[in-house]
Amino acid sequence: MDLKIRQTWPQIRLRTTSPELRLQVTESQLNIRQRNAQVRCDATQCREEIGLRSPVSFARDNAHKGYETVMQHIGQVARNGDMMAQIDRYDMSAVVTALSAQTLELPRFILARVPNSPVDMDVLPAELKIDYRVGEVISQPIRGEISLYMQPQGSVETEYVGRNVDIRG
Questions:
Q1: In this predicted model, what pLDDT tens digit does every residue of 54-95 receive, in sequence order?
Q2: What is the pTM of this model?
């Protein structure tokens, strides 16, 4: 006896699509700007008060003193000439008056030189600027998919192939 058996199994089919995650990233930015502190000291007036002058100041002061000295000397010579013109041969009182009017000026001595003015100082403070921008992360999730196909029932087919069978018997 020949039998042909065909069997179909129950089937489960899965179809999947993988999930995705798309990211857009904006970077953070940090900018730092700095300016150093600045200090300006001007001790010109202090130095001039103790006699340490700049060449320009020294030349200006000496030119002024020289002009004053020359003008005083010219005035003194003119006064002496006027006085000599008034001297009488027998009266010497004008000469004595003229000599007593000219006094000898004693030099002044400076024992210590301390400036009266303070040092002129300007301070420009330091400056620090910080700019910070926060970055962003934008996410776009894409879901995956699962498709399920199910044929729940299997089948069994049998077919008799072959010779005839005598059932009589």
A1: 888 888 888 999 999 999 999 888 887 777 777 766 666 766
A2: 0.35
Helix/strand/coil (H/E/C) assignment for every residue in the chain: CEEEEEEECCEEEEEEECCEEEEEEECCEEEEEEECCEEEEECHHHHHHCCCCCHHHHHHHHHHHHHHHHHHHHHHHHHHHHHHHHCCCCCCHHHHHHHHHCCCCCCCCCCCCCCCCCCEEEEECCEEEEEEECCEEEEEEECCEEEEEEECCCEEEEEEECCCCCCCC
Q: Closest Cα to residue 131, out of 27, 33, 35?
A: 33
